[in-house]
Amino acid sequence: MDTERIDPTPGRREKLPSELPRRLRAERERHQISLRELARRLGVSASAISQIETGRVQPSVAMLYSIVNELDISMDELFDRDVEHARRGGNRSEPSDSSPVVTMDARVEIELGKGVTWQRLTAEADLNVDFLFVTYEAGGSSSPDGQLMRHLGHEYGLVLTGSLEVTVGFETHVLGEGDSISFASTTPHRLRNVGDVPVTGVWIVVGRQGSGPGGDALASATDRQA
């Protein structure tokens, strides 16, 4: 079931919260992994996975990364309605009849737990790059309970509005409007809105599937919290 929210930015986005749980379940079943087995691998309860797959609970960023890594799919496939095209390797380098432009009102959106929203900024699936407009509501965090996450790839972020706390390893930085950061995704990290207004920014993850900087350093995410 779709969850309505007040969008702090203008325009109306195409939203996919009702399709996300279905796609996660379909990928799990395609890999012939039982619900209990996936839960065991992630170190959470089968009930937690069931609630995500039925749409009763939105996964955190960290949990979503853990699931897609375990199922060996790209984050972009979750946005792409043509999942089979993405699975065959469809990306911006292939000929396409569609426009390369994504207007503000046409962005595809996924709402995650902990007050986080992702909007894809590419017109088509690109399995090597996650190019996102991100929103962290006040108190929103990429992972729950202070846990850090890590995964393949390298991240580049630019804060447009608000104040975003970024913890990378043992260091914590607070980014304001116009500030940017880059770091290896294999280093444990967390993003958190420490202000009282929404944080918006542009976030890029290169090589999450092992084809970019730091891509061969780690095989899976280590945060196992829902």
Give your account of this protein's structure.
The chain has a seven-stranded mixed sheet. The chain has six helices and ten strands, in the order βααααααβββββββββ. The protein has one domain: Jelly Rolls, CATH 2.60.120. By secondary structure, the protein is an alpha+beta fold. The chain is globular and about 45 Å long. Helix content is 22%, strand content 25%. The longest helix is centred in the N-terminal third of the chain and has 12 residues, at 19-30. The two termini are 19 Å apart. It has helices at residues 19-30, 35-42, 46-53, 61-71, 75-79, 83-87, and strands at 14-15, 108-112, 116-120, 129-136, 154-161, 164-168, 171-175, 180-184, 189-193, 199-206. Helix 2 packs across helix 3. Strand 6 (164-168) and strand 7 form a beta hairpin.
In brief:
By secondary structure, this protein is an alpha+beta fold. The protein contains six helices and ten strands; from the N terminus they run E-H-H-H-H-H-H-E-E-E-E-E-E-E-E-E.
**What share of the residues does DSSP label as strand, in percent?**
15-25%
Instruction: Give the tally of structural domains.
Output: 1
- The pLDDT mean sits at 77
N to C succession of SSEs: EHHHHHHEEEEEEEEE
Key phrases:
single chain; 226 residues; alpha+beta; Jelly Rolls; seven-stranded mixed beta sheet; 10 strands; disordered N terminus; disordered C terminus
